[in-house]
Each structure stands twice: as structure tokens, then as C-alpha cells.
Amino acid sequence: MKEHVGAQLKAVRMAFGLSQRELAKRAGVTNGMVSLIEQDRVSPSVGSLQKILSAFPMTMAEFFTRDMTGPEEVVFRAKDLPDMATGPIEYRLVAATRRKRNMSILSEVYPAGSDTGEDLLTHSGEEGGVIVEGELELTVAGKTWTLGPGDSYYFDSRLPHRFRNTGEVPVRLVSANTPPSI
After folding, report:
1. CA atoms within 13 A of residue 161's CA, in its CB half-sphere
2. 52-88 pLDDT per residue, tens
3. CB 165 within 8 Å of CB 154
4. Helix-then-strand count for the chain, H and E
5. What tens-digit pLDDT sequence spans the chain (182 residues)?
6. Which ranges of the chain would DSSP assign to H, the alpha helix?
7. Is residue 140 within 8 Å of residue 155, measured between CB atoms?
8. Of 4, 7, 11, 14, whose CB is crowded by the most CB atoms within 10 A?
9. Could you tell me the pTM of the whole model?
10. Dist CA 128 CA 120 (whole Å)
11. Are 118 and 160 in contact (CB under 8 A)?
12. For residues 3 and 174, what is the distance between their CA atoms, to the nearest angstrom?
């Protein structure tokens, strides 16, 4: 536990771009205290750790449950996005390997004439997206719209919905949903 606190504090401090001196100043503790904790030479009291963590937008619980020591990818190249689809529609998932994702971001391609199926979709959460290219027909709770480049949508995913490309060119869009369903 002691080693975890030092390594975690250093990882959090570095993630926020703070020097030991700046962290100490913001937290109202000595630079030496921060240094000794990070080196695992002292184990901070709960009160001291709470005082230090007040310099970050982070609770004590988040400090102990977030793994800041392991590198999280930030950039995901198009060629590396896995296709999560089983049919003709392409669903390329951003950050598929990221631990504890709180949303799904998808790069989607609907070939001409494709759709999500006759059965309307429903799932928990919310979803939204922006059309990049082509025209997409969206049906939500019995109402239908045709969306073109730059148009967007956002709705409660528990409402029955469907996506269709009724045109002759592929539709490209970027969407997000939370909680992640993929």
C-alpha cells in the first residue's frame, strides 16, 4: 500500500504537469513532504494525503481506484480501430483497449442501402452523432428524419430507433453512446 501511494502520487502529479514544488505550494505542504511520499520514505496520514489531493480535481476514492501509473493510450490510429460490426455496416470503436471506458465513440460507415435492421434498437443510455458524409435516415420513437453532412442527433437510447442509408453513396458518421454498449 505504501509503495502504491508514492507511485500513484507521482503519476497523478506528472499527469497534471506539476513539479513537486508547485504541488506542495498548491496543497500548503512542504516540498520535502511531497518528495518523501513519492520516494516511499514516509507514509502520509489520511489528513496529509487529503490536503495534498486538494490540489487536484480528484477525490481520495478516485486516487486509490484510478490506475495512473500505467500508460493509457491517448491517440488511436484509424488503421488500428477494430470493426465491431457483424454485418455490412462498419462500427470502428475508438479506444477499444482503454480500461474502464465510460462511453463508446464509433466511426461508422453505412454502405448504400444498408440499415440496422427491421427490428428497432433499444438499450440503456444516450447516444449522439454527427453526419460527416452522405445522407442518413434516422427513426426515433416513430418519427423519421433525413440527416446530411454536418447534421447531428442526440436521444435517449431506450427509445426504439433505427438507422438507414437510403441513398446511393456510403454514409460516414461519428457517434458516441454512454454507458458504452460496445
Report:
1. 20
2. 998 888 888 878 877 665 667 889 899 988 888 878 9
3. no
4. 5, 8
5. 445 788 889 888 887 888 899 899 999 999 999 999 999 888 888 888 989 998 888 888 878 877 665 667 889 899 988 888 878 999 999 988 777 788 999 999 999 999 999 999 999 999 999 999 999 999 999 999 999 999 999 999 999 999 999 999 999 999 999 988 77
6. 2-15, 20-27, 31-38, 46-53, 60-65
7. yes
8. 11
9. 0.66
10. 17
11. no
12. 42
Determine the Cα–Cα distance for residues 74 and 98; give it in Å rounded to an integer: 9
Q: Which amino acid is at 39?
A: Q
Inter-residue contact 85 to 148 (CB < 8 Å): no
Tracing cell 480500461 back to the chain, one arrives at 99
Burial of 150 (0-12, 13-18, 19+ CB in 10 A): exposed
Q: Which DSSP symbol is given to 153?
A: E
Report the DSSP beta bridge partners of residue 153.
Answer: 129
Q: What percent of the chain has pLDDT over 70?
A: 95
Distance CA(73)–CA(82), nearest Å, equals 15
Copy the grid coordinates of residue 164. 438507414
| Amino acid, res. 177 | N
